[in-house]
Amino acid sequence: KDVKTITKIVIEETEKNRVELTKTAKGWMVNNKYIVRDELINQLLGVISKLESLSPVPANGHDNVMREMIDHHVKAEIYTGGQQPAKSYWVGGPNVEKNGTYMLLQVGDNPASRPHITYVPDYRGYVTPVYCTDEETWRSRILYNITDIKKLESLAIDYPAKPGNSFSLARVSDDSFAVY
């Protein structure tokens, strides 16, 4: 429930696509290479903290759900500082109504015997896409992290193939720029 204690999240698909999200002094990093997009890590942490079980998968659908989850699932491991995950679970696809997500808790090295339909209260839909394993999706889109715009004196954009499209901005006063 307290996402502040989470230090690392590993998300791995059955196809072996994998990302490791690690909390550092600079913020969250993906695969120890790039800063993570704030909106995506906040969304994932929100899902992790609010996720609830709606019900176990009904007996008449159990075998089909298990077969699908064995063939394709995303495994999420949540770490809170130790070498072993504090929680580990498989994320499957949506339920028939598409208002929940099939998930299977992992106990030790083995999956639990019964998957559950999980949901996030006050959210209608399934959460499988939140458990993304694409490094480029997680990577921050920030090019320059300028927090004090008053320190910016000028900016030039050069298009070598089309010099006529190039331009520059220069600070004229505290609240205005000139375009050249």
Report what the structure shows:
It is built from 3 helices and 13 strands, in the order ββββαβαβββββαβββ. By secondary structure, it is α+β, with helices and mostly antiparallel strands. Strands 1, 2, 3, 4, 5, 6, 7, 8, 9 and 10 form a 10-stranded antiparallel beta sheet that branches. Strands 11-12-13 form a 3-stranded antiparallel beta sheet, with no helix packed on it. β3 and β4 form a beta hairpin. It starts with 7 loop residues before the first strand and ends with a strand.
Apparent shape: elongated
Rounded to the nearest angstrom, the radius of gyration is 22 Å
Q: Please give the count of helices.
A: 3
Largest sheet: 10 strands, antiparallel
Helix content: 10-25%
Please indicate the percent range of residues in DSSP E strands (runs of 2 or more): 35-45%
- Give, in order, the helices and strands: EEEEHEHEEEEEHEEE
Low-confidence stretches: none
Whole-Å distance between the termini?
52 Å
| Number of DSSP strand runs | 13
Chain-averaged pLDDT: 93
Structural class: alpha+beta
Nutshell version of this structure?
With 180 residues, the protein is of the alpha+beta class. The protein is 17% helix and 37% strand.
Show the helix and strand layout.
Elements: E1 8-13, E2 18-24, E3 27-30, E4 34-35, H1 38-50, E5 52-56, H2 59-71, E6 74-79, E7 87-94, E8 101-107, E9 110-111, E10 116-119, H3 135-138, E11 154-157, E12 167-173, E13 176-179
Antiparallel strand pairs: 1-2, 1-6, 2-3, 3-4, 5-10, 6-7, 7-8, 8-9, 8-10, 11-12, 12-13
